[in-house]
Amino acid sequence: MMTADLQPLREALQRRLDVVADREFYARDAAGHLAALIEASGEVDRLGAQLGGDADPMLRHYLERQSYVKAMDWLNARAC
């Protein structure tokens, strides 16, 4: 079960993945899309850095390697 303290990380990861997938946004405003991607990535990095020392090593690995789909899969597998 995913603990409530991981929910903000899950939401930030989802926002980042949504920005990456938004091709219409990119086509309409490439600079704005890049800015949104940088902002979303920064939030993921900030929340990842706040993980406690007892955080699962695989989750840390996925975040460090920027394997964000795998990190989402890991989080979703623990959500109820």
- Give me the strand/helix succession: HHHHH
Q: Count the helices. How many?
A: 5
Secondary structure class reads: mainly alpha
Nearest-integer average pLDDT: 93
Radius of gyration: 13 Å
Q: What is the total tally of β strands?
A: 0
Question: How big a fraction of the residues is strand?
Answer: under 5%
The largest sheet, given as strand count, sense and whether it forms a barrel, is: none
Give the overall shape: elongated
Helix percent band = over 70%
- Runs in which pLDDT lies below 50 for 5 or more consecutive residues are none
Distance between the termini: 6 Å
Structural overview:
This protein is an all-alpha fold and about 80 residues long. It has five helices and no strands. The protein has helices at about 5-20, 25-30, 30-50, 55-65, 70-75. Helix 4 packs antiparallel against helix 5. The longest helix has 20 residues, at about 30-50. The chain is elongated and about 40 Å long. The relative contact order is 0.18.
